[in-house]
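Entry 12.
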Amino acid sequence: MNAKTYESVQGLGKTAQELESFGNAQNQLNADILKEIRIMQLQTNMLTHHLKEAQDEIAKLKEEQVKYILKLNQCRAELDSMKHQLETKDSFQAEVAALRQEVDRLKLTAKLNSNAIARLSNQET
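Predicted 3D structure (tokens):
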């Protein structure tokens, strides 16, 4: 990009002198604008680079988030499994307690029956 658009023309009198000062001012303005455009281009490039870095970081964070969500779901599944196992264990413990009571009742009944049979046997003899 060239900032100069006016080329000096000599020897045309007063009009040329007015054009000369206008052209020089326009060339200076163009140079200043070109300088600002280049600064903005550099800033844009820098911001684009920072945006790319931020997008990469966001992508990494999203990947980590997905991993943590999967791990959380796995932990929840394990917790549900453990709760089910605990409920099953409690159910088994209740069944074992009921079976013990039944065995104790049967032992008592058998003992009472044995005592009754022994008494009847003793009475007959």
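Annotation: The CA atoms of residues 99 and 105 lie 10 Å apart. The radius of gyration is 50 Å.
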